[in-house]
Give the backbone structure.
Amino acid sequence: MDEKKDILWRVYLLYVVMLIFGLAIVFRIGWIQLTKGEQLRAQAQKQELKFFSVQALRGNVLSDDGALLATSVPVFEVRLDIASTLIDQPFFDSKVDSLAFLLSELFKDNSKAAYLHDLKTARKQGNRYFLLHSRATFSQVKKLRSFPILKRGKYRGGLILIPHDKREKPFRELASRTIGYENESEDLFVGIEGAYHQELKGIDGKQLKRRINNGDWKPMFDDNEVEPQNGKDVVTTIDINIQDVAEDALRRNLIENNAEEGCAVLMEVATGKIKAIANLSWDKASGAYREKYNYALAESVEPGSTFKLASMMALLEDAKVKLSDTIDIGRSGYTVYFNRTMRDVYPIRNGRITVREAFEKSSNVAISRLVYEAYKENPEKFVERLYGMSLNNPLGMDIAGEGKPYIKHPRDKKYWYGTTLPWMSIGYELSMTPLQILTFYNAVANDGKMVKPIFVEEIRQGVNVVKHFETTVINKSIASRSTIDSVKSLMEGVVQNGTARYLKSSSFTIAGKTGTAQIASGKTGYNKTNYTASFVGYFPASNPKYSCIVVVSNPSSGKIYGGAVSAPVFKEIADKIYATRLNIHDETKDKPVETSVLAITGVPLFHEDAASLYEALEVPFQNTSKGAVWLNAKADSLGLALRSINYRENLIPNLRGMNARDAVFLLENMGMKVQLSGHGQVAWQSINAGNTPVKGQMIELKLLNL
C-alpha cells in the first residue's frame, strides 16, 4: 500500500510539474505576443521574398538613315553591402579613407569628409544595402570598379549595381518636340515617343528580391527571373541633314526678325513623308529659341493669304472666272463690305487687273470681290466646295495634339455674318494649322491627290521589319485636272512676277504663295502691329518632289511680309535639297559640274584643298585672298570667288560643313582635344562657336554627310 502511494505521489508530482511547465509556455507565448509582437513581426517581414518588375530597355527612335534621334543610355543605382562579413574591419579601416576621397572626386556631390562619415556610419549600423549614388553613368561605374574595397567585386567588395536607363537625344534640340517624350506617371505622351509608346516600351521582366536590413530589397540571382523583352525601334521619315538645315535657317531668321515663334516643315510630294519639321519659340528662361511647342501640328490660326489658293480653286472649279478675266479694283487700294473696310497689303493702283495678276500680287480687294460676287447669293456652295477639298477635316495624325481646322458654314447663323464670305476668301474668320495648309498645297503639287503626312516609316525589332507604313490617301482628287494645272501656273507666277520674286533667283523653279495675316488679339480685335508671315509652295515647279511651309509669328524688326520674312527660309531649305539630291535635277541634267559646285560653296576649305578641288572640277574661280589659310567660295555669274575666312585664335570657330581633317587641325592648333563620331562633315559641335578655347579641353564633333 505504501508502495502504491509512493507511486501515485510521484505521478501527481510529475503531473503538477508538467502542468506548471505548460502554463509557463502559454504565459510566455502570451507575454511575447503582447510585448514583442510588433518587433518580431517587423523582423519577420525583413526576410520576405517578393517579385519586382525589371524594366525593359526602351526602343530607339531613328532618322530615315538609321541615325539615333532618341535612345536609352544606361545609368546605375550604386549600392554597397558595406557591412558584409567578407569585408573585415582592419581591411575596411585601412581603405575607407582612400575610398571616400575617390568617391568625392568622381561624383563631386559631397566632400571627402562627408563620404567618410556616411561610410563609417553605414558600417556601424550594419547596412547591407547602402545607397551610394542613384544615377551613375557607365563611365563612372567603370572607374568605381577600380576603387579600394569595391574592386574586389560584388561579394568580397560589396558592390551592388542596379541598372536603369534614361532617355537621351543625341542631336539635342533637332526635331525634339516632334520626337517628343513619355511620362507614364503623369500621363504625358508627347510626339512620336508618345504615339508609339506601346511599341517602344517593350515588356518588363521579373526579378526575385529578399528584404534585408533597413527594409531594403536585395536581388536574388536564381532561376525564377523572367528576362525583359526590349522595345521595338521606330524609324521616322526625318532626314537629319535637312532637319539641321531647316532648324538652323529658321533660328537665324527668327533672330534677324526678332520674332516670337516659327515653324518650317518639308514634305515629300508623292508619299507625304515629313523630311524635316522645326518648331522654335522664344524661351525667356534660357534667352534663346527652343523647341517648346509643336506649332506646325497643333497651332490652328487664321492662315491669311495662303488660303487664297483654295478660294481661287473654288472659283475655277465652279467656272465662275477664267484667269484672263479682268476686275476693276479702283485706285484707292480698299473696298467696303457692310461698313467694314478691306485693304490690300500690297498697294495695287492699276485700276483694272486680270484674275492672274490678282492672285500673283495677292490683292485682298480683287480676290474678295471675285468670291463675294460669285457666291453672295449662295455662300453654301463656296463652303461646300472647300469641304470637298477636305479642308474642314483633321488630318488624323498619330501624334497627339493636332489642332482642329475650322471653316464656318452659313447655316451656323450665330457666327455667320454679312462680311464672313469676303473675309473667309482671303483667309480670315477660319483657322487651320501650318501642317494642314501644307497638306493642301502638297495635294496641288501631287496633281490633286491629297495624302496624309506621315512621320514614321517602319517599326523594327532588331533588323526585322515588324510593320511598314504605307502612304494614306485622304482625297483622291481635290479638284479637276484643269483647275490644278491653272493654279499651278498661278503659283509659278507668284514667284516669277508677284509677291515672292525673292525666290526667282534660285537655280530651279519654285511655285508657291505668300501670306501675311494680322494676328487677332482677344477682345481688341486685329492688332495692326502683329502679323504672321508665311510662304508655302513646292519645287521643282515642273516636276514637284518636295513641298514646304515656313511660318514666322509676330516679326518685329520692320519686315512683316511673307515674301520678305518666310521666303528666305524656304529658299535655304530648297537650295540645300537641290544641291544634295541629284534625282530632282531634271532641269539641269546637262550641267553636272554646277551641281557639284553648289554642294561645296560656303564650306570652309584649307587654301591648298580649295584650289586643287575647283581645278579638278574644271570650274573657273578667282582667288581674291592671296595668302589666306582658310577660304570659302561664293558662286557668281563668272564662276566662283574664293574669299578668306579669318578664325580668331582666342575664339572657337563655327565648324559646321568643315571636313573632319581640317576641323581637327584647327582645334588642335588651339590646344584642344577632339573626339569624333560619325562620317562626313561637321554637323554639330559640343562647344558653341564664340567660346574661348581652353588648352586640353575636350570638344566633341558629330559628323554627317551634309
The chain has five domains: 1-31, 52-236, 243-583, 591-644, 647-706. The radius of gyration is 36 Å. Residues 243-583 form a domain with the Beta-lactamase fold (CATH 3.40.710.10).
